[in-house]
Fold this sequence. Notes:
The chain is mainly beta. It has no helices and eleven strands. The strands form two sheets. Strands 2, 4, 5, 6, 9, 10 and 11 form a seven-stranded mixed sheet that branches. A hairpin with a 4-residue loop joins strand 7 and strand 8 (78-83).
Amino acid sequence: QVQLVESGGGLVQPGGSLTLSCVASGFTFRISYMSWYRQAPEKERELVGTINPAGSWTHYADSVKDRFTISRDNAKNTVILQLNNLKPEDTAVYFCYTTYGGGRWGQGTQVTVSS
């Protein structure tokens, strides 16, 4: 079955960096668009960014543009979200998402930005 497993979250100070990973299985990763979403407490889940199957195109939310970078390694079925210059408002659970099979979510990884 489709599985998405995120890792890499944690507590970081403002201005710091984190690298989130999502390892996929159970579907043809190399032909799938992949996205990262996030959900802060008492807020709706929002799109952070998307990457195309070849890794040649990405799209980001305005709130993270120029700070976050999505990449992928199709040989390892992995999509990466690099978070730089983190702000307290980036605190959220970050989820990996694929449109395969009507849409599948990972379990999420918590990112907390606080001094």
